[in-house]
What does this fold into?
Amino acid sequence: MEKLVACVKEKPDALCRLICFPWAGGTTSHFAQWGKLFNDSIEVFCIRLPGRETRLGEPFAKDMTSVVNEVTSVLLEQFKEKPFAFFGHSFGTYVSFAVALHLKEKYGLEPVHLFMSAAHAPNSAAHLALKNAEMPDEDSEFLAHVETVGGILVLPHNTDFMDSMVLMCRADARVFQTFSYEKTEKNNPFSCDVTYFYGSDDKIFDAQGWRELTSGDTSFYELPGDHFYLLKPPNKSFLINHITRCIENAGL
It folds into this structure.
């Protein structure tokens, strides 16, 4: 489990686990630190995909199915052990949704809450258009494309770091393009509440479709900032407090 999960503060008596899924090209460096910010009722796991950090020597995931299968197989006992919630940002939103869908369909397990951020609803036309968009071959054009679909963290002026970031982003983009979801009239996959967060200065995402994916409540919160609004300290504090309230009010 240590290969897949970063947990900087273990809380064996926590009531719930929050599983966090980073953005494209992302690592565990941000979300794993959330484990120190939540109270003792919430333990934080951050998912580490292959090809980065301690998994640098492993080949990148080839598709969404392989990512979902690894997460569910490694953490299945943890999912069965106690309640869990998901937080996904951008690309991580799609990964978390795919994992949640697989857990519900195959094992009858469901998060107590889905926290989604800065991404199209997976049943929207905008998601389908983004999925089918062609990825430029040239690195500078690829990075420009990433900027248009949400953005990338400011890169240091380091050629090796830049090359590594491009490789990770390309790999995650390929995984994203292998994920698809079709909503049918009778298909309402979740009963948990869904909360969607977005930055006020980010591009416009088609998020209303989340209402169609659960019989629970769906709420939307705009926070000041761009695609990476969640890195701003005031926004981080808001997220920590709001997520805590939602989980503690879930009747665990």
